[in-house]
Each structure stands twice: as structure tokens, then as C-alpha cells.
Amino acid sequence: MIPGLRVDVRLPLHRFDLAAAFTMRAGRLGLFGPSGSGKTTILEVIAGLRRRVSGRVEFGGEVWLDAQRGIDRPARERGVGYVPQDGLLFPHWDVRGNIRAGKVRASRGAKVDPDRVVEVLDLSRLLGRRVETLSGGERQRVSLARALCSGPSLLLLDEPLGSVEKPLRGRILHYLLRVLEEFRIPALYVSHDATEVTILCKEVAVLREGRIVAGGRPADLFLGAPPLGDLEGPEHVNVLEGTITEAAAGRAVAAISGGSSLVLADAPEAALGARVLVGLRADDILLAVADTPGLSARNVIPGTIRRMHDLPGGWLVLVEVAADQPPVAVRVTEAARVAPGLKEGMHLRLIAKARSCRLLAVR
Amino acid sequence: MLSGHALDALRISLQISLCSTAIVVPPGVLIGLLLARLDFPGKGLVETIVSLPLVLPPTAVGYVLLSLFAVRGPLGSGTLGFDLDLLFTWKGAVVAASVMSLPLVSRTARVAFEGIDRRLEGLARTLGYGPVRTFVSVTVPLARRGLLAAMVLGFSRALGEFGATVIVAGNIPGRTQTLALAIFSDIQAGRGEDARALLVLTTLLAFAGIYATERLVRGSARSRAPERTP
Hints:
The complex is a heterodimer of chains A (363) and B (230). With 363 residues, chain A is α+β, with helices and mostly antiparallel strands. Chain A is built from eleven helices and 21 strands. Chain A has helices at 39-47, 75-78, 95-101, 103-106, 114-120, 136-149, 169-183, 194-200, 218-223, 229-232, 334-338, and strands spanning 5-12, 17-24, 28-32, 54-59, 62-66, 71-72, 80-83, 154-158, 187-191, 203-208, 211-216, 237-248, 251-256, 261-264, 275-281, 286-288, 299-311, 314-320, 328-332, 347-352, 357-362. The N and C termini of chain B lie far apart (50 Å). Chain B is globular, with a radius of gyration of 20 Å.
């Protein structure tokens, strides 16, 4: 059974009072919200790094904080693996020293093999490096390795992709997926990026100004009514899971459930048979209600309109392409909805260029 | 080339400065740590008292110490029942030098501790480090350049000490006469040749000291490989 995390805490902050209550049951919870909404503070409260917190924190049946009963277990006894946004590596040790720093606790009942961590995170070539020579992505991997080597019962990940250059995010995402799937440690994942949360988390809690304002499964939440459009910005990215059936010269084809396949124009990392996550922006998809011969776009996927949400400046059309995939969100303008007479239950085709299908991560 | 009394002065100076540094660094670093990390009522008062010797004329500090250790003073043989044997001895000079250098050591140490990213200490705690281990393996190594500077400043202040020393320990050649005091005596007595020799000696000493510590501080910051095992 996955140990659950129950948090119900209050802490006065500079701009607002933090008063957040949420529960993590499925072992991978995304804490989603704009910057400055108190996400990092919540992680610090759970890690035991904040004073004067009122409320309760409970993990796997152990009480870590109960202000009323005067219980506040020190940070060193909580057994969390904290990965701060900037990695926060020890500047006076090299990479190996930083990873070994995690072994202080792990020596009492280690569950994680440090050699395996180094292997999974691909760090063997970096071990002798000084930390100030590392790139943002390398720092994050070392910080994650240090946390894992301490044998944590809960991982606290604070925007692991925040300080990573955009083109490299897919790589770190790939490492994160490997780590979460291989070591099976419950994780709280802080992010302001809906795509990341959709990929990595089973549940989401939405934080705004120190309060949890919504919660649920990522697909339901991000595509629900009203969608959290103001939080995620205009760039909603659909995440589809598939298996690579063709890969040659940087181009790849991914079969997705429901019998369709997607052509990816630029996916050099995709290997034959790999399970991949493909991203497709809601703005990049066209809808066709009839056959359209002579298309240059390579991807045509049949689907059914499930729901339509009124958005400021247009509509979000949710199209089901397969029973086990979350619906694909498509943004259309008011005119684009009226002209073809789009309505719920209608069968149609999604059309996307191969260049619009991005490889997000390889599992 | 160096006369016997110059070598004596050199030996006495080094002896006093080294002893004073050894005595003053632990409490100085501790005071720096407390001032950097703790907020307590009367903190401003403690800060002021600790910094007082920095502002007062050294002779005034010397006079306070002299009154303290005089036979009928609060720490004199008449009050304690035994003699601390500090007045007009090299040990008295060590006390004078220590009092004079304490503010520099504690202030520099305080700045060193304040410059540390405290989140690193918090992170160490999440990894299972206790308070002592966090201090020894994280806090001190991160503050090491500032702490080294505090030590060097304390030593330099002790080496150059004049005012308080001359009042507490006198200026006895071969016993309490340091380089600074010997230069003064030679000039007063019109022994220009001897004074110049001492000047060269102190300059060489100062040069070597500063050069070595600069190398040490830079070395620990840049060229030396970081320690491997936490």
C-alpha cells in the first residue's frame, strides 16, 4: 500500500496567510499554482524546515507535526528527500561528495543502492566534477541523486525543470519518470506547468494565494469546466501516450491507442518499441467534419466531441480519441465553432502537422 | 646583523601573538556565531560591549585591565587570594592583546556566518544531519574563508598591539618587550640603526604573513579540489 500524506497547515506569510489542506493517496501528487502562491513554503513545512507552523502533517500514519499536541519532529527524523528548485548543492563538495551526503541517514536502513541511482540518473561521468561547473539540468540530477541516496520515504520536488533550459527539459523529464517508476517513492511535485503535472502526477492540488482551490486527476482538472486556463496560460499541451513503431532519420511514428498513429517530425531520441509521451498544443490542431483530400498535414485522427467549454475569446473542444486516453483539447475561435456546426457527440477528425507533435519524454 | 635584543623582541612578539590568537579565536568565533544566529534581549548591548576595545584608545583599555589585575582590583591577588601573575609579565601582554583583538575576530566571524546560505544547513538536516554534524560539515567549511580571515586579523592585531600592552605588561627587554615596544624604545633612545633593523624585521614578518594567508584563502576558494567525503 502507498503511504498517504495528509497536510492541513496554517502559516502567516508576508503577502497572505498560508492555509492549505490536501491529501495525497495515489503516491504522486502535483502541487500546481502560479509562482508566489506558497508552493515552496508548503514543501518546507512538510520537510520540517519552517518554525511556527500551526496544524497537522501526517505521513504513512506517522505524525510529523501536530501543533496542538506540541509534536514537531525535527527535519532529520522525517526522512524526506528534498530537491529544491535551484538544486542547492553543497558548494564545498564535488558531485560525489554531494551524492554521498545523502548516505548519512541511509546508513541506518538503506533502501536505495547509490550505484543504481548514479546509473539511472546517468551521473557516472560527472562524479569528479565541481558543482559550479554543472549545467542547470546536471545540478537537478545531482540534487535528485543526493535526495534518493538518503533513502527517503517521501520525495519533495520543487519545480525540477524550472532552472533547466527549455530544450533540455525533455531529458530531465525522462530521468524523473525513470526515477519515479524505478524507485517507487511517493512524491510531491511542485510545478506551474500543466504539461509536466499531467505527465508525472496521478493527482493534482491547485494552490492559489496559499489556499487549495481545486483538486483531482490532472486530465479532469485541466480539461474540466471551467478549465484552469488563467493558471496555465494559453498554451495547453495535450499529452498522448504511444509506442514507437517506426524511427528513421530523426522522424518517428508513434502508435496511440484507438488504432491511430502520430508522425513526429523531430524525434531523434525515439527508439523502436519505446513508450513515449507526445505533446500536441491545443492551438495547433485543426478539426475537420468531412473528408479532406490533398492535405499536407500528416496526422489525421478520428474522434468524437465529448464536451465544449466556453473560453474567453473562443472555445475549448474536448475530443475523445480512445477510451483509455484523456480527451484531446482543441482551441477554436467562435467563428470556427459556428461554421462547421460543432456540437457534442459529433464525429470528426483531428488534423495536426508532424512538426506540431513534440516528443515530450521517453519512458 | 640582528642584535640579541631584536631577536628577543621577535621571539616575544610571536609568542604573545600566537598565544593570544589561540585564546581569542574560540570565544571570538562563538560570539560571532551567536550574534549572527540568535536574537535575544540585550543583543545590542552585547554587540556594543564586545566592540568597545575597537573604539577606545588602547591605553584606556590597558588602564582598565591594570585596575582589574591590581592587588586590590576585582581580579587582583588581594581579592582572589592567589596571584594570577599577569602584571608586567608576558602573560599579561597576552591578555592585553587578546582583549584588543577579540572585537576584530568576533566581527569578522559574524560576517562569515551571516554570508552562508542557511538553506544549505536546512537541506543537510533533511538528509539526516544533526546540529553538531551540520555545523562541522556544512557551516564551518562554508564559512572557512571568513573564519581564516578572522584568525589572521586577530593575529595581526595582537602583533601590532602597543598601548594596552605597555600599560599592563610594561616594556621590559627580554621579558615583555615586543617588536612594537622595541621600536618605540629605540627611537626614544636615539638608536636609529636598531630601530631601522627592527622595522625591516617587522615588515618582512608582515609581508610573509599577509602573503601566506592570501595564498591560503585563495587556495581554499579556487585551486584546491573540494573535499570528497562529507
